[in-house]
Amino acid sequence: MKHVLSATEARNRFFEILNSVIYRGEEFIVEKKDVGTVRILPDKPKHSPEEIKKILKEFRQVFSKAAKRKYWSVIDTPAWKKKESKYLENLSKGIVK
Amino acid sequence: MKKVIVDTNVLIDYVNGYTKWLEDVIRYERSEIELVLPTIVIAEYFTSTALEKEDEAEVADRMFSFFRKQDLNEEIAKVLGAILRRKTYAQGASLADLIIASSTIYLKGELATRNKADFAKIPNLRFFNSSAIHLTQKIN
After folding, report:
1. In chain A, which ranges are E strands?
2. CATH, domain range B2-130
3. Number of residue pairs across A and B with CB atoms under 8 Å?
4. pLDDT tens-digit profile, chain A (97 residues)
5. CA–CA separation, B122 and B101 (whole Å)
6. For chain A, what is the domain count?
7. Domain range for A84
8. Distances (CA, A) of B59 to A20, A61, A85, B83
9. Are B68 and A25 inside 8 Å of each other by CB?
10. Which of A91, B54, B112, B125 is deepest in the core (most CB within 10 A)?
11. A63 inside 8 A of chain B by CB
12. CA gap B37, B34 in Å, rounded
């Protein structure tokens, strides 16, 4: 996702922007009035092998209970899927409501 | 470089101890593969109540930082529109599945998913074959 903002706003929200770029891979275009623009975008994350191992392990541990459930969330339930199937069928017929 | 678009069920399977190829790609920074996460996959992942706590969302964010993100853009939307208009999708497919498939077609990538059946009938969609990856090192 790209966001456009002024240099003043970028200065005021710098650490928030940094986190969005690092953790969410978002991209920012900073405009300096009458001068030009710069882009802030993620470089490939630089993690040590130990950090990578830790992130992967943490991810597996934190979500292990949720992943063992029959349904990840409501969107996996048969009732939801049935409704969505009907919605798609209507969409293909040009019925949008 | 091959783009591998990752479906939500691959992430869930990874947590359950499967899809180890994902770990191989991430840990050994395999230059021939770029992992891509359509943002609809992030939405699906975040539907779980397990993501209610901020700390847990940050754990997911850290994991997702290994992936390139792909938003639903205008070109992908047009691919999606054509799939819906021509009804070239399987009965069990969800709108999210079709967005993931459209993103894969747009990126000329390969889709990594457990449920190939949900993506049947979609023209020009290629699937990722994880057995084609040669493990460089043993994963502990």
Report:
1. 2-6, 27-32, 36-40
2. 3.40.50.1010
3. 99
4. 678 999 999 999 999 998 888 777 788 999 998 889 999 987 765 678 899 999 999 999 999 999 999 999 999 999 999 999 999 999 888 888 7
5. 8
6. 2
7. 49-92
8. 14, 10, 32, 35
9. yes
10. B112
11. yes
12. 10
CA distance linking residue B10 with residue A46, whole number of Å: 24
* 3-class secondary-structure state, position A95: coil
Is A97 part of any domain? no
Residues in CB range of A64: below 8 A, 6 or more apart: B15, B16
Instruction: Give the amino acid at A83.
Output: K
Structure tokens belonging to residue B32: 């021939």
A67, B56: Cβ pair inside 8 Å? no
